[in-house]
Amino acid sequence: MGLTDNLFPGWLLLVCGLLFAGVLVTAVRQTSWAGLRSSPRLQHCLFGAAVALGSLWQLRAGLSPGLSIHIFGMTAVTLMLGWPLAVFSGLLALVIVVVTGHEPLSLFAVNGLITVMVPALVTHGIMRWERHRNFRNFFAYIFFCGFFGAGAAVASAGVTMVLLLWLTGVYDWYHLVHDYLRYLPLFVLPEGFVNGTVVTGLMVFQPELLTTLDERRYRQ
């Protein structure tokens, strides 16, 4: 998200660190490690997605510190791997971004929470909602989980960052609305398009790579 050192007070870093640790522990507990070890394809997807995200996150447009713009791509990864493995893949990608100097190591937990965990959990929630509604048309998975899910994920991450910047007094509300929030819909559209296109391509050509896709439900 284009954060810089000393942008947030210590108490906020502590709170974000605790939330980060809580989500990470939950992801560890919900991961089938035996399944991951026995599936080379899943391992390739996890590490391949990390490299792809790490490369994608190098491309960004800077506004103000904490308000940079880039494609997240977490929705497609979450639908491929499930949210726990998507979190690990995203954090590996964030390590790449830190190593290349685009994000500070001191804000790894904040970046991990906003850039990786919030989008993954929002996508997972929308996927669970789509599954609960029991839609029988596979376009529902593509539209709600892929296109809409990606837009909601990046919007949630953006709003979360704005609230943190506002509540800690880094920027006033007028600055945040004028320089970021009013442009947020413009970020949502390309995020939805990119992730939705990737999910559509995988569903058509390699549906077995989408671990969250229940093909049997759409064949009935």
From TrEMBL:
Membrane spanning stretches: 7-29, 71-99, 105-126, 138-167, 187-210
Record flagged with keyword Protein transport: no
Record's bilayer topology term: Multi-pass membrane protein
GO cellular component: plasma membrane
Protein location: Cell membrane
Keywords: Cell membrane, Membrane, Transmembrane, Transmembrane helix, Transport
Highest rank taxon of the organism: Bacteria
Main location: membrane
Signal peptide (from-to): none
BP-aspect Gene Ontology terms: transition metal ion transport
Protein name: Uncharacterized membrane protein
